[in-house]
């Protein structure tokens, strides 16, 4: 199963599971999406408005760090040295809808998607070629666990929005767009045992080759290096 098909299947799995439990699943409006990004493409000079007025002096330190250097820069701030940082980004032109997204964001229902995407990215980066070959069925099983796990200890600490101008692709026209950010933190001492538990369960519930088993063992030993 390729990565694209796996992602689609897992999102469908999450939606069906939430509906089956009579939970309210967050469904993005067609004109915007939720992203978890480790890199940013925001030029400070393009910021024309913030939640607290014009100018970048009002932007929180965590968001300035994120704009300058991504997730890694935020995690280097002293206040977050013992935490993993996750940033949820939503963008569009409808500020009312985006404010509703901020209000309705759920650590229980929405955060697992963000956490799982980071876990998935870490596994993919560790594979020499394709993770479903290198790790066998462990990979698919691990990602399913990542999406369905409840991440106890995740906290929506802050949110903020900025407004930017940009040039429309392949045109000379300029447009404006809001970018809304949610800062989610979780203690390293909370997340690491959760992920180790997922890996242990995934490894014990699949049959893999000796070569794949060796690769899985290496992954389990080095997973948090560069996570």
Looking at this protein, list some descriptive labels.
elongated; 227 residues; alpha+beta; 19% strand; five-stranded antiparallel beta sheet; disordered N terminus
Give structural notes.
- This protein is of the alpha+beta class and 227 residues long.
- The chain contains eight helices and five strands.
- Strands 1-3-5-4-2 form a five-stranded antiparallel sheet.
- Helix 1 packs parallel to helix 6.
- The longest helix is centred in the first third of the chain and has 18 residues.
- The chain is elongated.
Residues in β-strands, percent: 15-25%
Q: Residue-averaged pLDDT, rounded? A: 85
- What is the CA-based Rg, rounded? 19 Å
In whole angstroms, how far apart are the ends? 24 Å
**Number of domains as seen in the coordinates:** 1
Number-wise, the strands total 5
| Major sheet description | 5 strands, antiparallel
Poorly predicted ranges: 2-39
Strand arrangement, major sheet: 1-3-5-4-2
One letter per element, helices H and strands E, the order comes to HEEHEHHHHEEHH
* General shape: elongated
Q: Please report the number of helical segments.
A: 8
Q: By helix and strand content, what is the structural category?
A: alpha+beta
